[in-house]
Structure formats: structure tokens, C-alpha cells
Amino acid sequence: MEWIVLVMIAAIKMGTPLLFGTLGGVISERGGVINLGMEGLMLVGALTAFVVDLNLNSKFAAMVFAAMAAGLVTTIHAIVCISLRANQIASGLALALFGGGLSGLFGDSLVGKTVESLNNLPIPGLSAIPAIGPIFFNQDIMVYFSYFCVVLIWFILFKTTLGLNIRSMGEAPDVCDALGLSVFRYRYGCVIVGGMLIGIGGAYFPLVLTSFWVDNLTAGRGWIAVALVIFAFWHPFKALLGAYLFGAAIALQLRVQTMGIAIPSYFLEMFPYILTIVVLTMVTIRNNKRGVSVMPAALGLAFFRGEKH
Amino acid sequence: MIYLTLEKRLHFSPVTRISVSLIAIAVAILVGGIFLFAVGVNPFHAYGLVIEQIFMDYWGWQDLLVKIIPFLLTGIAVALAAQMKLWNIGAEGQLYLGAVAATWVALNWGNELSIWMMIPIMILSAMVSGACWAFIPGFLKAQFGVNEIITTLLLNYVAISWVDYLLYGPWRDPGSNNFPVTREFPDSAQLPAFGNTSIHFGLIIGLMVIFLVYFILEKTEVGFKVKVIGDNIYAAKYSGFNIKWITLAIVMISGALAGIAGMAEVAGVHYRLKQNFSINYGYTGIIVAWLGRNHPIAIIFTAFFLAVVFVSGELMQLEFSLPIAMIYLFEGIILFSVLGSEIFTEYKIKIKNVVT
Amino acid sequence: MQTSHNPHLVLELRGITKAFPGLIANDRVDFTLKQGEIHTILGENGAGKSTLMNMIAGLYPPDHGDIFIYGKKVHFTNPRQSINHGIGMVHQHFMLIRNHTVTENIILGTPQHFKLNFRRVNEEIRMLGEKYGLIVEPHKKIQELSVGEQQRVEILKVLYRGAKILILDEPTAVLTPQESEALYQIIANMIQKDHSIIFISHKMKEVMSLSDRITVLNRGKILATFIKNETDAQKLAKIMMGNEEGKELSVSSPAPNQRHEVVLQLEKICANDDRGYQILNEVDLEIRSGQIVGLAGVSGNGQAQLAEVLSGIRPMESGSYTYWGEKLNAPTVSDMIARGLGYIPEDRKRYGIAGSLSIAHNFLLRDHKNPKFYGQQFLDINKMNQYARVKMEEFDIRAASEKTQAGVLSGGNIQKTILARESSRELKFLIASQPIRGLDVHATAFIQKVILQAKSEGLAVLLITEDLDELFLMSDHIYVICGGKMVGNMPKEEANIEQIGLMMTGVTVS
Known about the structure:
The complex is a heterotrimer of chains A (309), B (356) and C (510). By secondary structure, chain A is mainly alpha-helical. In chain A, 72% of the residues lie in helices and 0% in strands. Chain A has a single domain (2-111, 126-290), classed as Orthogonal Bundle (ABC transporter involved in vitamin B12 uptake, BtuC). Chain A has helices at 2-30, 38-56, 59-83, 88-107, 132-136, 141-159, 161-171, 173-178, 183-209, 221-231, 236-258, 265-290. In chain A, helix 1 (2-30) crosses helix 11 (236-258) and helix 11 runs antiparallel to helix 12 (265-290). Chain B has 356 residues and is mainly α. Chain B has helices spanning 14-38, 43-55, 58-83, 91-109, 115-144, 148-168, 202-219, 221-231, 233-238, 243-270, 281-291, 296-320, 325-341, 343-346; strands spanning 2-8, 347-353. Chain C has 510 residues and is of the alpha/beta class. Chain C folds into 3 domains: 9-240, Rossmann fold, CATH 3.40.50; 260-340 and 426-510, P-loop containing nucleotide triphosphate hydrolases (Rossmann fold); 355-425, no CATH class. Chain C is 32% helix and 25% strand. In chain C, helix 14 (411-422) runs parallel beside helix 15. Chains in contact: A-B, A-C, B-C. The interface between A and C is medium-sized, with 25 and 35 residues.
């Protein structure tokens, strides 16, 4: 029993960067722009957070700067996809390469340095609940912030005018345009805000999970987040579910490794990726059967007014 | 009020397209220079070195012609799939798997068979291995419509873990001082080189594959079907093409071609399987294909360009001890720049003056 | 500031000119709309009606000329300004978001509280709907609504924004006769409540019954404006088509001595849609050689799937399919092509061509095994181009060359390409699905002539259409499909438009 709680605590920790990334992807894609470059953005966020924390010794500043740096880098993606109407998938790959390269280049001299890990902050009362308490309410502040983001994004997307407009951008930008909403403004907003969240997800690695910097710190988790957006059906609550499911898979894998079971660690490392493929396949099959697509209808399509006449 | 608008070009010519691409690459070189400057390298000095030590140098050209080989193969692999609007982001993994199969053949049969037998068997096994690895995303795509971008990509991580396992485990050369490498291939399993250069036979294989793919696309019924499916899947259905089968076959062939790239690297350059022997060669194939607009012949030129980028990157590594990440950064910049420029092949900027 | 002379005008256009690369869509157009009037703009496809309306709606500005609203000169740079001036456009292709509810569609882009109060807004919409006789369920998703209901949502959308000037762009093009009647009533309600309407149509009957004034547009220019009582349908039709002869078809009627063999016989055919739900329910059908069978029905009632079953694209679940006396089990597309089946698909751009390939390559679709395109073993590009040139000449397909991408052709030229390709094999049975939808008068006449000619030479044709004029013009025998069932089956002589219209909407007629 205690063993499960320990794994679950780790699952939340491992799942949190995925959650931020998935939420960022949800916002971007609800607005109609795919962000395939999450891996690169997470790395930019991670490196920025690490550098800022190293120099200013402030976790808060580290998070803010990570968000800003990732937001800035995503802006390139936004310009290329929205204003210049290029292929979003190719641009996302460019973003992944660019972000990975950027973090590798500027992080090269930082390998070997360490920062302190973010402390857990038990919430009085709630953290005393058996099992649930230690799992969900004896975590660090970034985890609590991710809970807040889930609820906030859900509320904005489905209960407000802003959310209606965002969702409409992903469904039918031409309709929005004819009604006088600025497609450019909303899509830029979604991509950049989404990118900032992804950057925060990246920041979680050096600030909580590792405390140090190595090249390619996120090790493919960004790509798992890309898949999780589909798994979550572009919905923040399901994003939470998916992120923790995969967090659990990663935590379990680490747990098995430390228990000294005679499976080579290389096979355990494959596990989250294989699981992602299996789950993605199941979700796709189920979706095919249902026949209704929940994918934003205009996802991946560039918009240009006056194409038709 | 004066503002800029885009106006659709009525005629677009290959000349426009190529000149726009060249400008985009020039912009990328400029931006790359800024980043070089940011890490304390004088970009003029750096680019000068590239010209001097690569373009004006016998060894430099040799390096380029060795480096182009994996890009020819991964580029055509990605481009073939892209002809059907399929993204094979898994060329990296397929390349590793191809190398694994070739290595297995080399290490197990190398002492018994002659080079005339070995090389074809190694190529074939690399192709089968790459194709089988690509079968997974290909089948999932054809049968269920599972997003191939994500599956091919994630399988790269699985493939690399698998290679790591082999190199740290059963395949490690006992005499390697614990380095994760296999034994050296016997002579019969090494791709011959031209004269006393390091340019190996993979160059011929790469070019042959490219011309073969070109011929199939332009001159055969299957090629026609691939083009139609890539352009309009509904028209393909209406014409009665077996889309599932063709999808699966093309993804597998794409994987097979990437597999050859892996074989060519281990049998032509390293003569053994080692960790990280591919420096994003598979991902680079995507850039090669995109820059060449998936046209087989254009890919020869774009593969050469990427070879220049890589050899330059390695030069920077030596001269200024910059990390390999510099190459990835540069690749990202090029891709962004080329993508951003594409709109200008279809549209021209018009300055409009509207009196309000 | 310039002002307009006449204070009774709610809208005035003066000298509006708009050019797109390679074409002048509107050329010095003058137009007025009076308070409480229905002013119809009449014109063929491509006459420039949509461009003109899009400028009023603020989608793009005119190159030259002025727009006045209530006598005040306006300059729209985006659609919102137009909306704020009380203009509401109901587009021909609905601008609705299928995944959203009626309410979400209606309030999108209107000023609302940050936190949406759906209950209050739903109530507002219900009340607005009752006022004009536009009844819809606010919480339903668009994809659950019929075409007529979707149009009501479109109209509600502009009324909710307080539109006083409504532009209805071919509103009845997609409606059944009964739905159209309901729309006329709604239009009357709106006029009564002080709205003014620009009505775009080329259905002469409704134009003559609804309009106060009629303006004829041709090739971007205004040809004339009439007060309704001072003109008649014939005169208008003549002007609209640029003084050319209308839909007169000079095709010899079928030789009566021809033997009408049964080409195709369906008994109790059932089939499923893409999601696995039954869409065809025990369909019977018989078509003879030298006969055009018209299949009438509202889109989405199974006729598309029926065509797919016949052509081998979609498997049938049960029933019997007899073709030239041979019972077919699970025919494939290539089987049917080999048996002389030609198919002009409904969505010609989506199904009929591969848009980024050349016209020459497009002649290989559904014909890619034909030795005429091959050298010894491989495709011969010269033969392909040569063949395409011959066909382009024969079918009057206008393009720069056979190497032109098929996707850039006009709808009429695409349709001619498809027809040329499908009829180039030895044809025994032709399925023509909405063959003239959206085509201009010349292309329409050409296509209809080719089909009628082929029929007179003994071809069996299944004509699937929503356009009842076309149905009666072309068919020898009429079937009606509704909800995946054949609900009507009669020779043309025994059919009448009202009865067919009712059958299409599922009302049983005794």
C-alpha cells in the first residue's frame, strides 16, 4: 500500500511537466495551430529556468523567465505558421530542432552545476487525508499551480466569451473572420500562451526533477506531451488524467529499476514510449468507432482572408 | 494609409522558387552568424574557415561526399513517404535498426562469406530490418489511421534504447575498454572506398536508389497511384486504388531506404556499430526532403547542402569547441527560414496606398 | 464629407470596382436599396454578385467607388464595421461551426459578458426566433440540424446582431420546395418589421414573386434595373444570359425504335455509411439502356452512398445487384470500370480530380491501366500529353496547356475534364451526380447536351440531382429517395414538382 502511494507521489511529479506541456498544446491546438515543437520548447524552458535559478537563486523568477523564453521562441513558430502560413508540422519540427540546438549550445558550459530542488509545501488539512493527502497535497508549488491551470483553462475554454472565440478559431477561422474577430490576434495569443506553459513544463525538470543540467534533459517527454494532447481530446481535465497516467508509467519504470529486477534498464526506458503508441492506437480506434471527431476542424490549416472571390 | 498586402502570383516559375529558396538560405546563414557571434565566435572568421577548409580543400570535398551519403538515403526515404503526405519522422530509428541488422550479419557471417556475398546480404538485411520497424507505424496508419507523426517519432527512442542495450550488453567488444562499441567488421563486411579516398561505395548506392525512386514515381502505375493518393485521397478512393496496401508498402519501403543509410554508415565509415553514430541523420532527412520539395533529383542538391552544414558544424567543433547542438540549431534556423519564405513563391508583396 | 442625395435609401453603391488578379469582378457598379424593399440581384455564376456582397459585408474593400449607408459614406476595412452599420449577410455556404451549438454560433463575435450566461442567452434567442417565426433549439449542435434549420440559425445570427439590411445569397439553392416556402414567409415577416433585403437568386419564379426591384448583373457590370411590374421573366432571362439563348437543348430525342434492355437492376440493396450505420434501406432500382433515370432527393439521404455502391467504392451489406444480366457479388471499382461504368461524382473537385497533378495525368484516373498511356511497359508522358490535347480540343476544355494543374481550372472545365475522361472508355452505364451544380450556363448546356446525346445512342444514365428543373428537363423516369429508402418511382409524365418536393421531405403522397 505504502509502495503504491510512493509511486503515485512520484507519478504526480513525473506527470507535472507532461501536464503543463499538454495544457499548452491544448490551448494552441484549440486555437487551430499544432505545436509539434514541444520538445524544443521544454528544453528552452528548462535551460532558462536552470540559468536563472543558478544566478538569481529564485525559483519564481526561474519559472517566469522560462515561460518568457519559451514564449519568445514559440513566437517564431507563430509567425511562420500564422503570418507566413507555412506547414505547421514542418515548422514544429524546426522548432524542436531549434530549441534543442539552442539549449545544447548555451547549456554546454553549465553541465555539472546544480541548483537546489524546489521544496514540498504541504497544504494544511488536505495533506493529512490518508493516501490522497500525501499524493496530491504534499507537493511543490508548481504542482499546485498546474492544478490551478487545469481548472482555469477549463473555465476559460468552456465558460467564457474568450474561450468560445478561441474554440471557434480552431473550428472555423473563416467564420470568425466574417464575424469580425481577428484570427491573427487569437491564434498568436493561443500559440504564445501555449508555448509559455510548455516552457514552464520544461522548467520543472531542473527545478524539481533533476536539479542539474545535461544536454537533452527532457529526453523525449515533449513528444509524449504531443501525443497526450490527442489522448486528452483537447480537454484540460483529460489532459490531467493522461499526464498522470504517463507520470505513473515513468515512476513505475524508475521504481522497477531501483528494485533491482533483472530487466535491463534499456527495456524499461522504452516502456513509456511504447505505452504512448499503444494508448494512442486505442484512442484512435475508439474514436473511429464513435465516428464523431472532437479534433478542432481547422487544426493545422493556415488562414488567409480573401482567398475566395 | 499605406499597408502591405499579399497578392497571389498568377504564374509561378521554378526560377522564382529557386531564388526564393536561395534567399532563405542566405538569411539562415546570416542568422546563424548572429548565434555564432553570441557564443563568442567571429562569424566572418568561421564562414571564412568553411570556404577555405572545406570548399577549397581536397579533404574537405572528401568529407562532403562521405557525409552526403546518409542524407541522400534518409532524404529520399522521407520524400517518398511525403509523396503520399505521410510524415516519416522515424527515419532515425529505421536507420539504427538497419545498422543493427547489418552489424549482426557482419559479425556472424563476415568471416565465412566473401565481400560479393556479404555486401548484398547486409544491404538486404538492413532493408528488411528498416522496413519491419516501419511496418509498425505503417500498419497502424493504414489500418486504424493512427497519427504516424507521433508513432514514427516515438519509435526512434525505442530503437535507440535497443541499440544501447546491445552495445552495453551482448554486443560489446570485450577489447574496447568498456566503450559501447561492437567489434570491428571483418574486411568482407566493409563497404569498399574509391581509390585511396574515404568516399565509400554508399555514394553509388544512394544515387542509384534516388534514380530508381524517381523512375518509379514518374514512369510506373504504382508511382502514379502514389502521387494521386498524396494529392487527393478521395480521388484515389474514387479510382479504386487500394490505399491501405499502398500506404503500408510505401511506409515500409521508406523504412527500408532509411535502413540502407544505417548500413552504409556502419559498413562504410565506422566499420562497427557504436553509440550515437547517427547525428540526427534521420531527422536531417526531413529537412533534405522538405528543401527539395520531395523531388528526387532536387534531393541530391539539398543533401549536398546539408552535408556542407554538417561538415561545417564538425569544423566548428574542432576549431572553436562548439557543441554538436550548433548543427541542430542551424538546421532549425534553415527550416524556419525556408518555411517562412515559401509564401513568397506563391504570393508577392504589394504595397497598397489606400486613401481614407 | 460626401453624402447621398436620397434620404430614403438605406444603402447606395456608387461606381464600385473590384479587380482580382486576372479578372475584373465588379466594374463601376451602381446600386440602391430602399427602406423596406426587397431588391433582387440576378446573375449567372461568376457574374460578380458574391464579390459585390462581400464588399458590402466588409470582407474586402473596393478598389474604387463609394458605399453609403443611410446616406453616410462608409469605408469598411473589416467585417465588424459592416455589422455595426446594421448589415447582415447570410452566406450561400453557411458560415456555421458544426461542432458548436446554435447559441454559440449566434453569439460568436457579439459583445457578451466575460463569463457567459448561457441560460439568459438561450432565452434571448428563443424569443428572437419566435418574433420572426424562426424556430430552432438553442442548445442543439449545428451538425444535428437540417439544412433548413441551419439557414434559420444563419438568419438569427444576423438579426441577433441587430441587422437592418439583410443580404440573402441564393438562400433557396439548398432548400426543398417546402423549406423555400417557409423562408418566403420569414422574409415577409422581416420586411414587415422594417428590414430591407438584398436577395440574390437565379430562380426566376421566386424572383418574380418576391422582389420589388430587380437588378441584372453580368460579367461584373450592371445591365439594367427594373421595377418588378415593368418586366417579365423571359425578358430578364434573356438579359441575364447576355442576350443568348437560354436552356434550349437541341438534341434529337431518342430514337423510338431502340430496344430498351435492362442495364441495371437493384433489389433490396442495403449499405452502411462510413461510421457503420445503415444508410441504404432495401433500395430497388431499374435502369434501361437509352434511358435517363432521375433520382431526386435532399442531399444526405443515401444517394451519394448509392452511387458509391453502384460504382464499387462502397460494399453492399445485402441485396442483389444485377448488371447487364450478371449478378454481382462484391464488385470492385476496377471491375465496374472494366464493365463500362462511368461516374461523375457529386463533389467534383474533391473526388473527380487530383488537383495538383496535370490535366494530362488526370486523364489516367480510373483509366490508369489503359495501354494507350504506356510505351513498352512504362508510362509515356508524350502519349499522355498527346491524348490530353486531343480530348481538350474535343470537349472544349480551356486551359493554358495539358500540363496545367487540374486544380486551377474553373468548375465547368473540371466537369468537362471528368466527362471527357469517363466517356472516353466504351461506356455502358453512366452515373452523373449533380452534374451541373454551380456551373455557368454554357458549361451546363454543354454537359447536358453530351449526356443527352449519349443517351440517344443507347447509354443508360442515373442522374442524381436536387435541382428539380434539371430533373424534369433530363429524366425519362423518376425515383425519389428519402432516409435511405425509395419513396417514389414514376415515369416523368406522371410526376409533378410539388409531389416530388413533398416526397423528398418524407411526406407520403397517396
